[in-house]
Amino acid sequence: MNPSVAPLLAELQALVGAENIISEGDSLDTLSKDYYWYSPLLRPIVDPLRADLVARPGSIDELRAVVIACFRAGVAVTPRGGGTGNYGQCVPLHGGVVIDFTRLDRIHSVEGGVVRAEPGARLGPIETVARTAGWELRCYPSTWMKATLGGFFGGGAGGIGSVRWGGIASADTVKSITVMTCEAEPRIIRYEGPSAMVALRTFGTTGLMVEIEMRLAPKLDYDQLAFSSPDWAALLEWTDAAARNGAWHKRLTSQFQWPLPSYFKPIAKHMRADEHVSFVLIDRTQTEAVLASAAAAGLTCVYNRPLSDPPKPPFLSDFTYNHTTLWAMKSEPAYTYVQAGFSTDFRNQLDQLITRYPGEVLIHLEWAAADPARAIGPNAVPEAIGVGGIPIIKYSTEERFREVLDYATSIGVGLSKTHNIHLPEGDAAQTAARHALKRDVDPRGLMNPGKMKSFPLNPFA
Question: What angle, 0 to 180 degrees and rounded to 10, lies between the N-to-C axes of helices 346-356 and 398-410?
Fold first, then answer.
């Protein structure tokens, strides 16, 4: 244990209870990590990293006491939710104390289409409570049964529901974020609407979230449909048209190149050998119209199940977004992934990738609203929906992997920096705003130090 952290052990045990301080063993290692091991580039970097201590406060007052103690000692603090991130968002680069928020899980209210909750509230229970009140989450990750609200806002982007509502930063989904500063006397600051965006998805570098208000969508009943075809292009044309059909109320539109469907073991018996598959989560009142449209396009419906209320497995969403990567890696550990955004020329881009890297690059697509206000209804426009996804790549060497990524970039595919442990840099204005916020809420630079690469590092000030 770092000598500057050791004196904190007894103090933190007194503040939150000895049972809520972890200082050794497998639990310390587990709570210091996330799903970074999806990336072969991050494994050698992250494998040796771990916190000196993990604190699990059960109230805002306990959180405040932990922050005061760490600030006084000059010890780094890194917030953690469910640990379902994929590129080390909650992994401490310089040790210190990881603050596990999962005991701060109270759902305060669901009123007027807004959920107000503590950051450790898991998205699965929020969805259940919201649906009981006639609402549902606008978007959520495929890890929704484990992921926390604060973790999603601090390190996530979008997911199921994004085909209608875009990502968490889209439209007016974020009503407010309330944070605690890392100071001798921590302040509570509430950011509303657009002003909250600067604190969103900053990997816990710009304040400790203590309360979140998120707008919900009116509840719908859904059917889970899977369509199969040996003809990739025909399936793509239909799925793309379905995603852009503003009259259809969708929560998910995904497409997978064979053999990816064969890796979805719990539903593999429904998949047809050598056929590609698309998933659609659709308003139950529109299921018949979707089935008729798919049949007219020559597609076969291989899976048709209602999404129960309250939601209970199986969920087709458990095989989408980065869960696709997880299922692929279970069958072939050499697989990894990249997050991609395709242009209006996506058909050609996909053909080029499939042709150049047969069996090495497997296409997995997700459709999302780039402009939610124009994505649904009688005045919906097709260009309001964008084509992205998480292609699966068979990893052999770093040189070959970077060659694949460079080629994708050369044909106009936008790639996220998902194999980089640092917070992605935005434009100059966004970076300046983040720096200003961090200086205000974290004057000693103790919050997840080093993760905001452009900010001066002072891990144990």
Answer: 150
Sheet of 250-256: strand order equals 300-306, 222-229, 276-283, 250-256, 364-369, 385-389, 340-341, 414-415
Report the C-alpha gap between 66 and 8 in whole angstroms. 10
> Does 222 score more than 70 pLDDT?
yes
Cβ 320 vs Cβ 286: under 8 Å: no
Amino acid 343: pLDDT: 96
Q: Are 359 and 258 in contact (CB under 8 A)?
A: no
Q: Which CATH number fits domain 220-415: 3.40.462, 3.30.1050, 3.40.50, 1.10.10?
A: 3.40.462
In the block, tokens 């059917």 appear at 223
- Count of Cβ atoms closer than 10 Å to residue 332 Cβ: 12
Do strands 174-180 and 208-215 pair parallel, antiparallel, or not at all (unpaired)?
antiparallel
Task: Supply the pLDDT for residue 371.
Answer: 87
Cis-peptide into 314, omega within 30 deg: yes
Cα separation of 278 and 38, whole Å? 24
For the stretch 100-149, pLDDT in tens is 999 999 999 999 999 999 999 999 999 999 999 999 999 999 999 999 99
The closest alpha carbon to 70, from 92, 87, 85, 49, belongs to: 92
Confidence label for 439 from pLDDT (cuts 50, 70 and 90) = very high
Domain spans, the chain? 8-100, 107-217, 220-415
Model pLDDT for residues 10-27, shown as the tens digit of each residue: 999 999 999 999 999 999
Beta bridge mates, 393: 336, 361
Q: What is the pLDDT of residue 330?
A: 96
Contact in structure between 252 and 280 (CB atoms under 8 Å): yes
Token duo for residue 174:
């974020």
User: In 3-state terms, what secondary structure has residue 172?
Assistant: coil
Identify the H or E element spanning 273.
none
The string of pLDDT tens digits covering residues 389-416 is: 999 999 999 999 999 999 999 999 999 9
